[in-house]
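subagent[fold] <- orchestrator: predict structure for attached chain, return tokens only, no commentary.
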Amino acid sequence: MNKWIVLLCAASVAVVGCFDNKGKPEDVPTAIGLDALLATNRANIVRVILRGETRSIPDEAFSGLAAIKMIDLSERGTKDVPAAAFGLKGIKEFYFARNGLETLPDLSCWAETLDYLNLDDNKLTAIPDHVGRLTRLKWLRLNGNKVADLPSGLASLTNLRRIYLKHNALTAVPEVIKSWTALEDLSLDGNPITSVPDWVVTLPHLRAVSLCDTKITKLPADLSPWKKLDLLALSACPLPREEMKRIRAALPDVDVVF
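subagent[fold] -> orchestrator:
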């Protein structure tokens, strides 16, 4: 998780953030809050954090952001992404969590750059096919929505490494996940899923699988491909004791959590 230190930059009135990027600290010009964004020379700003900003954001706030890579518009109490935001170029990370979003707008304007999308804790019931145009995505967060399935149009997300779908309305593991052969981290906690298809076990790069608080009573017969996992989380699942024993015996070197 990125750690932020807010400090006053002597050279300008911009708010600058310092974050830990996988253990390598970097100084990244960051505007935190609408007042800071409006007051500063925006040409060098890389990260814009307007989380919790309930005021209307004027179009001018998004002008001149030539270096921007990340924008956080979470917890603003609005379902609408400001139209001017879609004119930003080079966005790699987009946060729009906890806003009551019901329909996801087309984000294809960032198809060539976006690799992280956080839509946690909204009111999405479906994910539109146009998300499949975001082919650079590596991490997709959809926790805490009402999604019942994922469309086949997302099969093009072949660069995806992490998919988080905790606490949705999935009754089965979405078939489209089979196409995401680069996937390393799969989280489906808190869904009424009753079974795990054999193909999930054969995804070649999986390192972490979390199925906690689902209705799964049995895993596939052949668990040998999962010997390479670092973590298999199955807590609060109605697994019989004998099935637990079988899983542990099949995966002796995996951190299995019941």
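orchestrator: received. Logging for downstream: The longest helix spans residues 241-250. Confidence is low (pLDDT under 50) at residues 1-25.
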